[in-house]
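G., the chain you wanted modeled:
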Amino acid sequence: MKSKNSRVPERALAIGAHPDDIELNAGATLAKWAAQGCEVSLLVCTDGSKGTWNPDADLDELVAVRQDEQRESARRLGASGELVFLGWIDGELESGPEPRRQVASWIRTLRPDMVLGHDPWRRWRLHPDHRHAGWLTVDGIVAARDPHFFPELGLAPHRPYALLLFEADEPDHAEDTAGFEAAKATALESFTSQYETTLSLPPEPDDADLARLHTWVADKLAESGAEAGLASAELFKLIDDL
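Predicted structure as tokens:
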């Protein structure tokens, strides 16, 4: 790994395509920073309305449920900043001018030192929302830092000092997550609507099922940590020339 353990940011903003994407990819890192005094904010780009295998699901209800789940997860992570739902339709996110303006607006408003998001350059990525959320993160930073992008916002430009991209093909930065495995797993427990589709759990898991989730999370973090010479880690592509 090129680097390990950035200095704890005063403010961090994590940008995800759907509810639970941030926790799956950076939950332990965010819990660690929050415990060390960082103001963590979360921005979710889509409404999560396709996040079920049930063809008869009430999608309006699903959207509301997934927002409540995301709120509970943020609470469990210790995220003391803003929780923003952009509300674009799941599966139909685009990285065009309007969503880019929204992301830039929130970066200028929240003024994070560190931004986290999907790596848009990941090869052979199937889900379009992850690609577009990654582009919105990267393009939103550029728009937020330069004064002639979206001057109608009336917000002062802001340049974060670093960007961490998760789901990267070639990660070069590790955040030590030892001691925060349970915090990540507990945050993921909040997403009850995703037990079957994402977390491989029964709809009503018992204690043994949830214990397996905690073991799975710890094993994944240990696997990533081994790549960086750490007992437990989340891996990112670091871009610190913004």
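The chain has six helices and eight strands.

Shout if anything looks off.
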